[in-house]
Amino acid sequence: MGRIVGGIGLSHVPSVGPAYDRGKQQDPAWKPLFDAYVPVRSWLEKLKPDVAIVVYNDHVAEFPFDKYPTFALGAADEYAIADEGFGTRPLPAVQGDADFSDHLCEQLIQAEFDLTVCQEMGVEHGFLVPMNLCFPSTASGWPVRSVPLQVNVVQHPLPTARRCYKLGQAIRRAAENYSPDLKIVILGTGGMSHQLQGKRFGFMNEKFDQWFMDELEKNPEGLAEISHQKIMEEAGAEAVELIMWLTMRGALSKKARRVHRHYYAPMTTGMGLITFEDQ
Amino acid sequence: MGHALKPIPDTSIFDLRLSRRGRRLNKMCEALCSPTEREAFKQNEEAFMERFSLSEHEKNLIRKRDFKGLIEAGMNIYAMLKVGSATGNSLYRMGAQMRGESYEEFLKTRNISGAV
User: Which of A149, A193, B96, B114 has the fewest CB atoms lying closer than 10 Å?
Assistant: First the structure.
């Protein structure tokens, strides 16, 4: 049986990628962020998941706006590293789990989530930054297999926070219906507060971000009612990515308990991190 | 069920109407995900813009590196990062311009400006 053993909410700020690749882990400006992941990686090494479901958004690398899926699920044995306009990071191709992806597609579509199914799908910083922080790759590959789940959080109308949460609940039911023994972690990525355009460029709101993490832990059902308008007004237009954290949270049971929590906001994005262990 | 989004001051909400307005600009930026196309853009920006049928107004915004104007013309911020990269303008430089500040002034407003 498939079991969701952990959930992680975390930001996917693009500059973390080059900072990591250039070895800035000990740079005073970056150290607080990278240090926060040291205990998370030890925890993941003990959990020993087989697969990571990564809920993320593409930034116009793989999905141009002419045909833009609301939810797109990867169903492949391998995912290429996408070039999002600045060249590709020196990372190995991502290993998929096509059998589990097929199962998810069947179950989720049966549950009336009409996903776009992707047999080929390049992944970029939205996926790679969180994955490499939690599961660092080596030249020989990645320590876990992945299933990418891409969500439209860029071109309105977006799916509601409630819909994202329900998708997480459906993912949990689908995982539990999977015959092979499989330990799964789910990553909800993006946010926290940030706005990258207009005169309000650089806007952050730590108070909102801390409140969001409080609610995510203690009152996820209530948080799932949050509107795009409220997130964008209080935390910046691009903070609406946070609805993807609710897919992660929806996939966890009532028994899930919070393990780690961290926050660091050096430049233009509140970078949050929260982990839950489940059974 | 659905609630129309209300305007937010100093903020662009990238919806279908804006995306349609910016279609030519965004299509051009989408092409910059290819190294060959990036090279073509750098070699001859005018020919590149012509290929994507940009209007004279859109071409002028690109020529002037008017990032605030490009957002208003419907360019998506993530598409703009690609044209920023191809023209040597980082996100923070584009952001400073959109705020109406110099890059140095903008950095002074940050919590830890070394994290670039």
Answer: B114
Q: How many domains does chain A have?
A: 1
The pLDDT assigned to A264 comes to: 97
Task: Indicate the pTM of the whole model.
Answer: 0.97
Q: Range of A230's domain?
A: 2-268+271-277
> Closest-CA residue in chain A for B8?
A233
* Residue A193 pLDDT level (bands cut at 50, 70, 90): very high
Say how far residue A144 (Cα) sits from the centre of its chain. 15
Residue-level pLDDT at B3? 65
pLDDT at B4: 82
Sign of the torsion formed by the C-alpha atoms of B7, B8, B10 and B15: negative
Measured CA to CA, the distance from residue A43 to residue A35 in angstroms comes to: 14
- pLDDT tens digits, A94-108: 999 999 999 999 999
- The reply to whether residue A197 touches residue B77, judged by beta carbons under 8 angstroms, is yes
Q: How is domain B16-87 classified at the architecture level of CATH?
A: Orthogonal Bundle (1.10)
Contact A61 B71 (CB under 8 A): no
Positions of A annotated as catalytic residues are 125, 194
**Residue B33 with chain A: CB contacts under 8 Å:** 60-61, 82-85
Please report, for the domain that includes residue A255, its CATH number. 3.40.830.10
Q: What is the pLDDT of residues B55-102, one digit of tens each?
A: 999 999 999 999 999 999 999 999 999 999 999 999 999 999 999 999
Contacts of A30 in chain B (CB under 8 A): 115
B73 contacts chain A (CB < 8 A): no
* CB-CB neighbors (< 8 A) of B13 in chain A: 156, 232, 237
B11/A197 touch (CB, cutoff 8 Å), yes or no:
yes
